[in-house]
Design a protein that fits this description.
Belongs to the glycogen phosphorylase family. With about 800 residues, the chain is of the alpha/beta class. Helix content is about 50%, strand content about 15%. The strands form five sheets. Strands 5-8-9-2-1-10-11-15-16 form a nine-stranded mixed sheet, sandwiched between helices. The chain is globular, with a radius of gyration of 27 Å. About 50% of the residues are buried.
Length: about 800
Amino acid sequence: MTPIQKEVASKLRYLLGKSKDYDLKDIYQGTAWSVREHLIDSFENTQDYWTEKDPKFVYYLSAEFLMGRSLLNTIYNLGLEGEYGKAMQQMGYKMEEVADQEHNAALGNGGLGRLAACFLDSIATLDLPGWGYGIRYQYGMFKQLIKDGYQSEVPDIWLTEGNPWEVKRHDICFEVGFSGKTSSSNGKTVWTPAEKVMAVAYDNPIPGYNTTTTSNLRLWDAEPITEFDLEAFNSGDYEKAVEERERALAISAVLYPNDSTPEGKELRLKQQYFFVSASLQDVMTRFKAVHGDNWRLFPEKACFQLNDTHPTIAVAELMRLLVDEEGLDWEAAWSITTKCVNYTNHTVMPEALEKWPVRVLAKMLPRHMEIIEIINAGWTKFLEDKYSGLKAAERDQLVERMSIIQENPWVKDEMQVNMAYLAVVSSSAVNGVAYIHSEIVKADIFNDFYKLFPEKFQNKTNGVTPRRWLAFCNPGLSKLITDTLGSDNWITDTYELSKLAKYADDKAFHKKWRAVKQDNKARLAAVIKETFGDDVPLNALFDIQIKRIHEYKRQYMNVLSIIWRYKQLKKMTPEERKKVVPRVCMFGGKAASAYDMAKRIIHLAVKVGDLINKDPDTRDLLRCYFLPDYNVSLAEIIIPASELSQHISTAGTEASGTSNMKFQMNGCLIIGTMDGANIEIAEESGKENMFVFGVDADDVPQLRKERKNLKTDKRFDEIMADIEGGMFGDKEYFKPLVDSISNMKVGNDWFLVANDFASYLDAQEEVDRVYKDVDEWTRRSIMYTAGSGKFSSDRTIVEYAKDIWHVQPLKPPAL
């Protein structure tokens, strides 16, 4: 037996109690616990070294981390793939089959969480002292089921078999309070919470690639202070006996609880404060262990990156801890806070820029509401002095517009806290996540603030880790690239990929490139076969749109184009159909549980697929599938197999997008609008190689004003009539969808689906034309990968570290 086999056998026997008769799940557990030992050695070595050297740390605060599976990623990053691959083979197992037994960690949902995961990978790979902080969700957001064509949600039960990749720290726990009241005595404010829970730390080591550094993702689990009320139980009040436990567990149960109810709003706020408070207490405790109460040094040792507005309550909590708990005066605490905190804006969508009703904040976090009121009073006083030269009415209007606390225009007599404004006012730096998005941030969302503090605002275009999203998920292409370039340096220096451009017209290289794609398409076809029982034609164009379901992402428009394609096929003669490019269209993504319109879009996509996929006249030329419960592992199969990916948001609505970067790295062509990172991808890979359609962001506001006068395309009208006529089932269920984009009806096409539809169909015709030219399609595919170097998260993190965090690499010595 090899040493690795002995390790795995030992784990099977002494951890699982099995020395024989084990199955694949057992082998996974044994292998994972074996790999974990190597991971823990590297983790402790890194943390010991960083503790000794006492560098400045960055702490990445995020409500979600979409990590995916860990086994293969850890093995590859630690450089153990050869040893474990050989051991598995000798034991009679395939490494990929073993890895498939792992549950996806249900710690995130969409691009925000996946970006955070990519950033942690890059922080570790670049040897930067930094940790992530978040919540250890018991059930994730939800597991998506498609029943009778409708999305339904069930808990994502991912922890029942344990999680070998986490380490529970029983000794690292902090009390977190809610509600209650405040009182003042001798000039000091005391908050007495009515409810308390315990935040218990779970460490998830994050190994860097080809380095000795292993960083950390510390997640907090909510536990009750009192596990069980025996007195209540003995008196017959069984519900009260476990009431405190159930209330605590709810905090870390589900990602993004439905906030359409007052109780849901309160729970979401409790979640955000829970993990922020525990994280800040943790960081400050470690600081004090080394530096005592020398808080002036704190900004030189710690900085916090707010990943969107969810962790923004950190501003008030840091002030509370410094003033109320550590005894600093307000000015000193404010100086420290504003040097430590930085804010990344991820969206231009109004509903995602959180605004908390004052009554909710005051009820759940009374001391924090007081602190925010003090911050706002100082801020508005500053503005009044700054703009004292303006006319009174103009000055008052500006101050009101920039106030952190504002009237809710939709609810009478309700004041609300604009968390994005609190983040901007309190942060040392504010950044957008793509060039166009950062320009919108400055020109629109935070224009008043930008005029006042232009030096605060930066752009940091997003990126993705090339390890998971090319090297590991697409081994065939990875090997071809390495063999062609003569080294695998591109895995940590993606600008090396630009050297592929000289092979863009090499026919022999084309053949190898296409062979890799066909192998990946066969792997995805096997997933479709397993899920739907259908064999799909491998000569078809694989056309993909995978992302959370939202009206601004316009999956609806994609579905409408599929309907049009189907209608055209039905009209064709058999001879005409022979000239058609076959397509397999695939969707994946979740609709938020309370997002009714997004659920209707899913249902339409499913019903369109049901009709098309069963039609013997067209099923060899067109298919449509909605892949349920889209996650990281599914993406790792879909993306390498894709040939066309759709990034078709209304111009000016997508902050960046990162799936477009993953597709680009894997040589997938893009049909898209000039929105988000699409613009920069076009610059890097050639706009002439992208299928661009739709209006530009600058034209959107005027078109929205004029949309009632739009003369819609006849093809669009015909499709609307088909949906209204019941061609795809329950026409009453689809009526809100039709009304949302039909001229002069409810909604009036805010996302310009009807406006862009003709341009979109033209772009789709161009896709068909180019796909028929195999060499041209392959050339473009190669140029996409060659132009993807900029979009590594390593580049993004280097920029954050240099321009915002001011954190230096610190690589531990080898063990």
